[in-house]
From TrEMBL:
The lineage of its organism: Eukaryota, Metazoa, Ecdysozoa, Nematoda, Chromadorea. Its EC number is 2.7.11.1. This is non-specific serine/threonine protein kinase. Residues 1-39 are annotated as: Disordered. It comes from Panagrellus redivivus. Keywords: ATP-binding, Kinase, Nucleotide-binding, Serine/threonine-protein kinase, Transferase. Residues 1-14 have a biased composition (Basic and acidic residues). Gene3D superfamilies: Phosphorylase Kinase, domain 1 (3.30.200.20), Transferase(Phosphotransferase) domain 1 (1.10.510.10). It comes from the Eukaryota. The keyword Nucleotide-binding applies. GO terms for molecular function: ATP binding; protein serine/threonine kinase activity. ATP binds at residue 83.
Length: 430
């Protein structure tokens, strides 16, 4: 691997003494380590808010906004939700949330906007949406209920994508569910981003006018993914970190829901990142484990996902994005749907049993040795590809089969092969 060696310079004794006396770089002096300004909240100082609403109670908060429950003074029986957008925390490239909710609200599970206002702060007033906590309902949610939850999420995301908007922070906490009334609400567009489709058009042109027979020349823009330096949390940083080129990549979102292309640091990010987040949400629904993954760093998350989807898929995808992803181990891709349903039904004894596994699965998984292997439907392993007919013999419930297909269409590592929201909506409608 190539390495950068700093050029030696001859310095006078006075220069050396001056360098030695120079104090270490502090967080405020180093732009890479400078702490962001803390966003300010002005809602309690706003005359417009106090003149129109009372009984404010904080019910939610995030990096980009605070949400309050309040009561309308004009219509005391009306309870509303007021979101205060924290201006100092907004990146330059996000969609103006106030414009977005006014343009798209009231349709396809996006809440209606009742009012907007700007003074010292920026406020969006929406209908108040009582909902159940995802953690509370996931354990008892049936396959049919899970299917309707996901089908409604697909409908909402397709609606956004049809208007060239990427949500970027899709997760259960941002897709509310009222179980009693079977209502849904997609919320929090603080990270939403406009998408021009330039990458998709470039990809189609590349495929159309590709030249065959040419050697694979080294790409001077190739980047290498590797574990971060151990001095990440120390000040001043080491010389190696100071010499690293700064690559601007949008990594906004919740880590466990980030798509592989974001995790490896690719700048090619399309609407497909929302499809991946839907797949992760569905994985939690099927397994009834939330959260399932425990990684805190991007490359740690890649490792956890590679244990399910295989190391080769990540290495190949990184290469397509001009990256060099190195792993010191090799793991096979599993049948992600069957793996998820083993968690839902224990050892899948309710719909099948795991018997006669391959040598690879025997080393990784624990099997029920008391199950007979004479039944032909038991003759499979978790890393063996199955066609639709074989999978249908294992997952006997129609809703389970639909969820399995949906999961396999969403959790595709290569974004170019991942399904679009439009195609998912055609297949999984409510």
């Amino acid at each position: 691997m190539a390495s950068l060696t700093p050029r030696k310079e001859v310095k006078s004794d006075a220069t050396v003494r001056a360098i030695k006396r120079k104090p270490p770089i502090t967080a405020s002096e180093n732009p890479k380590r400078r702490l962001p300004e803390k966003p300010s909240s002005y809602i309690h100082q706003s005359k417009w808010v106090s003149n129109n609403y009372s009984d404010l109670k904080l019910i939610g908060k995030g990096a980009f906004g605070l949400v309050y429950r309040a009561r309308s003074k004009r219509h005391p029986e009306q309870v509303v939700a007021i979101k205060e957008i924290l201006k100092n925390s907004l990146p330059d490239n996000v969609v103006c949330e106030m414009d977005l909710v006014q343009m798209l609200g009231g349709k396809n599970n996006i809440l209606s906007t009742l009012a907007t206002h700007k003074d010292m702060g920026a406020y969006i007033v929406m209908e108040y949406f009582p909902h159940d906590e995802f953690r509370d309902v996931i354990k008892s949610m049936s396959s049919n209920e899970a299917y309707h939850y996901m089908a409604n999420m697909i409908k909402s995301i397709e609606y956004l994508h049809s208007h060239n908007i990427i949500h970027r922070d899709l997760k259960p906490d941002n897709f509310l569910y009222n179980r009693k009334h079977r209502r849904y609400a997609l919320i929090d567009f603080g990270l939403s981003q406009r998408y021009s489709g330039e990458f998709d058009r470039a990809q189609k042109l590349k495929q159309r006018y590709s030249v065959t027979g040419l050697p694979n020349l080294p790409n001077p823009l190739t980047k290498t993914c590797q574990m971060p330096c151990l001095c990440e949390d120390f000040k001043p940083p080491c010389n190696g970190c100071l010499m690293k080129p700064e690559v601007v990549v949008n990594k906004a979102g919740t880590p466990r829901f980030l798509a592989p292309e974001i995790l490896i640091g690719s700048s090619k990010q399309t609407t497909k990142i929302d499809i991946w987040a839907m797949g992760i949400t569905l994985f939690f629904l099927i397994t009834r484990k939330y959260p399932y993954f425990h990684a805190r760093q991007n490359l740690e998350m890649v490792t956890e996902l590679a244990a399910l989807l295989g190391t080769k898929t990540f290495i190949d995808t990184a290469e397509k994005h001009g990256m060099s992803l190195k792993m010191d181990f090799e793991l096979r891709p599993l049948n992600i749907a069957l793996f998820a349903f083993t968690h839902r039904y224990g050892t899948l004894n309710e719909c099948t049993a795991l018997a006669l596994p391959c040598d690879y699965c025997s080393q990784i998984f624990q099997y029920d040795q008391n199950v007979s292997s004479e039944d032909p439907k038991n003759d499979f392993c978790l890393c063996r590809p199955l066609d639709i007919v074989q999978q249908a013999r294992i997952l006997t419930q129609m809703d389970d089969r639909r969820l399995a297909v949906m999961l396999q269409m969403c959790l595709v590592v290569d974004p170019d092969k991942r399904e679009s929201a439009e195609s998912l909506l055609k297949k999984f409608s409510v």
